[in-house]
Structure formats: structure tokens, C-alpha cells
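Handoff note, outgoing to incoming analyst
You'll be picking up this chain. Sequence as last confirmed:
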Amino acid sequence: MNGQEHKRETDRKSPVPENEFTALTALGLVGTVGFLVAVPIVGGVVAGALIDRLAGTGGIGLIAGILLGVFAGMYGAYRVIMRETPWKP
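Most recent structure output, in case you need it:
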């Protein structure tokens, strides 16, 4: 690829401006937030159940794991939403 072809390739405009929040952007954000909330909760359940099994704590580890997972997921979702959305407080 010579310099002229590369210049034409980079001069093309995207059909969607960079700072526009579209429905497709929102759909991607929903998927990301869902993933960011679900994975820490599942990890907390697994870790809490493992702690309960190893330490014999009778459910305390599971509850703590779920709560930590929920808080971690909500914090991650909050950070992504604040970074990605154009309407900031």
C-alpha cells in the first residue's frame, strides 16, 4: 500500500460521529454492564461456596461472596457507564 492509498483509506468518514450516542452504542453498553455485573456475582458465589466448604462456616462465606460480588459488579458497571455515556452529572 503506497502513501496515496493509505491517505485515502484514513480520509474516509464514519457514518456515525465519534461523540454520538446511538442505539447500537447503548446496546453494546447494556451487554457490557450485564457482563460486568454477572461475572463478579458468579465469582463471589463460587469463592464463597469454596470458603464454606474448606472452612466449614455454614453459609457465611457464601453470603459474603455474594455481597462482595454484587458490590464489585455495581462499582464496575458504574465506572463503565460514567465513562461511556455523554450525559455526565
